[in-house]
Amino acid sequence: MGFANLFVVALMPVLKVILMTGVGFFIASDRIKLLGSEPNRHLNNIVFYVLSPALAASSSAETVTFQSFMTLWFMPLNLLLAYIFGSILAWLLIKITKTPGHLQAIVIGCCSAGNVGTLTLIMIPAVCEESNNPFGDPSVCSLHARSYASLSLAIGAIYMWSYVYGIIRLYVNKTIENDSTSETAAESCTELDVLPSIDVDGIPLLTTSFNGTIAKLSAWKKIMRRMKSISEKVDLKKVFAPTAIAAIVGFIIGIASPIRKLLIGNEAPLRVVDSSAYILGETAIPCMTLIMGGNLSRGLNGSDVSRTVIIGIIGVRNILLPLIGIGVVKAALHLGLIASENKLYHFVLLLQFAVPPAISVGTMTQKFQLGQCETSVIMLWTYVIAAFTLTIWSTLFMWILA
């Protein structure tokens, strides 16, 4: 296929995402106000606690079997590498741009977590629906596309709400502790200034005692902080969010044959449970896309986030990570870790490195009450640029694979 034809195939799914996001953007505007701050928060909670878990559970339970999971085993590793490389690049970006402490968690989240759920569920089946797609018969392609996209969503949910959520919470706690330490130090200095200075044989006793106490408190605080950090890492109730737990439950249902026969299929005794979860899950995609549009509209208000940080995040997500993704998939092919004939699977693996930041990062900043305006601005610009770069990368990926 020619490059121009591949470009058209890649453009159609991106246009669908733009149109659906545009609806959310429009109804959240100041003129319409159907998706204002309060409705957005309530809808976000519904997606977080109900719709997204239903989607992750039903999708993984229906499409993931023991055989398919063994065939697609590299996808969890591929996604993990994408998150790790994104985190490393985010750390370098923070050091280079000297990002303020209250924005570091947002930078980490935007660089490490890609939108491997909503976008893949929309884009990959849409690519297959094009008659001139490079992946074969549209009906067969669409069947595999939903399986791959669902697995990407489920695994992404686990990484998102364990790995990324843990890192963001760690940075948020670090920022709060630094602010508290600064306030405590300022208060201590104020108290020291009003106390009389008493010297015995020329030795400032008060200052010496004060410095020694501060050193002991500082060492004790570091020990306590480390113990707290370790305890938080093993606290599974706080680490795993509803979507991640639901995805794990879906995996168990899909892989365990006796449980699968009870819930999945037209003859399953408890098929009504799966059907209900499926209906709820289907509504998650449009709701998440509307929320995405609503969050992006808030980026028009501006914030104090520097252009350098925004450009850096765009460079990481839209340029560096896709290049790294090509290297990862090529290396996996060379080492025989993935089958060479499954081009659609390769395309999904590559696309996981090229998507813009996950909208769930905005959900996390809302829950932590941290830099919501800054997150909206970053999301707005990364998604505007991604409308072009995602089309180009998708075209390039298909051209490489074809």
TrEMBL record:
Alphabetic keyword roster: Auxin signaling pathway, Endoplasmic reticulum, Membrane, Transmembrane, Transmembrane helix, Transport
Transmembrane region(s): 6-26, 72-94, 106-127, 147-168, 239-257, 309-332, 344-365, 377-401
Principal subcellular localisation of the protein: endoplasmic reticulum
Keyword check for Cell cycle: no
Location in or out of the cell: Endoplasmic reticulum membrane
Matches recorded under InterPro entries: Mem_transp_PIN-like, PILS1/3/4/5/7
PANTHER family to which the protein is assigned, alphabetical: EFFLUX CARRIER FAMILY PROTEIN, PUTATIVE-RELATED (PTHR31651:SF20), PTHR31651
Function: Involved in cellular auxin homeostasis by regulating auxin metabolism. Regulates intracellular auxin accumulation at the endoplasmic reticulum and thus auxin availability for nuclear auxin signaling.
Family named by the database record: Belongs to the auxin efflux carrier (TC 2.A.69.2) family.
Protein name: Auxin efflux carrier family protein isoform 1
Organism phylogeny: Eukaryota, Viridiplantae, Streptophyta, Embryophyta, Tracheophyta
